[in-house]
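DM from R.C. (forwarded with permission)

"hey, sorry to bug you on a friday — could you get me a structure for this? deadline for the figure draft is monday and I only need the backbone to look sensible"
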Amino acid sequence: MAARSMVLASIVASLPAAAIADPTLPRQSATPGGVVLVDAGPIAASTGAAPVVTVDGARAMVLRQRDRWTAVVGLPLSQPAPATVEIVIKDHDGGERRVGVDITDKQYATQRLKVKPGQVNLSKEDLARADAERTRILAVLATFSPDPPVTLELAQPVPGPRSSSYGLRRVFNGESRNPHSGMDIAAPTGTPIVAPADGRVIDTGDFFFNGNTVLIDHGQGLVTMYCHLSVIGVQPGEAVKTGDVIGKVGATGRVTGPHLHWGVILNRASVDPALFLPLAAPAAAR
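My reply, with the result:
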């Protein structure tokens, strides 16, 4: 019973200071849409095998940080707050621990946009298409490959001012819709988009809302998504390196003008891309 007991602890207090300071890890934000780092225990000298960490049934990333394991856990925008999120850690010796992480609320702004009426109140055909595409995209975002990412410090995929759009409550033509789950980067049509880290292209396509889209798997549940492209420059299965051109900025799908919608997904949760960018990057445009 002790192995299954609930452990309630501060997320920062649960981690070694060295793991928190590691520049390759994303910055922590224990809020909806944020990322938390969880101490997943010491590295066993006998096996050296990583524990299996899950949150809400989804497999989470586990990285080796000196002599301990650190779980890197994404929190969805839909996460109720304040609340305690349960992280399940299963060791290879059969032991199981449950760590509770306290999540605080965060108030995001509201954005009101005007788009074509047919992109808000969909026809029967467009609704069926959008629903099928949503199922396909969610399946791709659930990808979990065993190898860890080369780095969790991502490069901005296209130059330009970064909007503070992540988490915005979207109102299209006066009708409320889901919050914005990515970062918008303003850039002219045709601007090259580059891979922010090494990875493998796991899907591309032309979608009703997202337009021309590229999705890249970086390892252990970290997936990045690029939407509204004018040109797709890669194919599924293709390996990419940091800085490789994967497409060009456009205005396809449901948009009000050319820009890149950049999404970062961690254990199936769309999280704030700004947490993965270097601190020295330009401040977000306001």
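R.C.: lifesaver. The chain has two helices and 21 strands.
me: no worries. Residues 1-21, 281-286 have pLDDT under 50 and may be disordered.
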